[in-house]
Write a structure and sequence with these properties.
The protein has nine helices and nine strands. By secondary structure, the chain is an alpha/beta fold. Strands 4-3-5-2-1-6-8-9-7 form a nine-stranded mixed sheet, with helices on both faces.
């Protein structure tokens, strides 16, 4: 297996199935079964889940709510998603732990890096909830941060209904084409919708690759098995020389 430890980033929308909002139990169960199967091969798996299927802080801010308050509400939405995925994983035979960046001690452990690593070493699936615990940071940034903290070898970004990184918005450009490989810097400079700029910069500075692919049945297993699906974002030589040039 090419990877020993990965962090899977899921959008909240990936849990909706065909619903307009909320959680679809069948979709969550299928995801859990696939993760249990992938984990059985010895892969250590951590997960960060967004909360967009329940609440978006930025959307609330656009409607006049204080952005910080909206973001805290979004963090609580990720806790709900984390508990739903935990329950489905446990029901399908996995050992799991939810670690939250904000204190909800009745339902989740507080996030402590060494504890997270120990859980992974013991074969548990670790679900990181509540983002970074701070407003103004997205769950993309939380995924990059947690992946680096636990020493993950890659971030797997399973997208809802998108095969990878495209060279345009498919809603505006129906002929938008898949980009099989690019660098973090290219993604930032071209404004491609991989992750937000903060998350991409973290990954670029620490040479952490990102595999972007569609969350379709079997795809997680194919990616961790070494198959090239969707788009791979990794550090290129031009990024290294650019940073070295800026440091002189």
């Amino acid at each position: 297996m090419p990877f020993k430890r990965v962090l899977l980033k899921l959008s909240g929308e990936a849990l909706m199935g065909s619903r307009d909002y909320g959680l679809d139990a069948q979709t969550v169960d299928k995801l859990a079964r696939e993760l249990v199967d992938v984990r059985s091969g010895g892969l250590e798996v951590a997960i960060v889940i967004g909360g967009g299927n329940i609440y978006r802080g930025m959307a609330a801010a656009a409607e006049g709510m204080d952005r910080a308050t909206g973001d805290y509400m979004g963090m609580l939405a990720t806790v709900l998603n984390a508990l739903a995925v935990q329950e489905a994983l446990e029901r399908n035979g996995a050992d799991t732990r939810v670690l939250s960046a904000i204190e909800v001690q009745e339902v989740a452990e507080p996030y402590i890096r060494r504890r997270a690593v120990r859980h992974l070493e013991k074969g548990r699936v670790v679900i990181f909830a509540a983002g970074t615990g701070n407003p103004f940071f997205t769950t993309d940034t939380a995924a990059a941060l947690r992946a680096l903290e636990i020493g993950a070898e890659a971030i797997l970004m399973a997208k809802h209904g998108v095969e990878g990184v495209l060279d345009g918005d498919p809603r505006e450009h129906p002929d938008a084409k898949l980009i099989p490989e690019l660098t973090h810097l290219q993604a930032i400079e071209q404004g491609l919708k991989v992750m937000d700029t903060t998350a991409l910069s973290l990954c670029m500075d620490n040479h952490l690759p990102i595999h972007v692919f569609e969350l379709a049945p079997g795809n997680i297993g194919r990616v961790v098995g070494g198959e090239h699906l969707g788009t791979i974002v990794r550090t290129g030589t031009e990024e290294t020389s650019s940073r070295e040039g800026g440091a002189r």
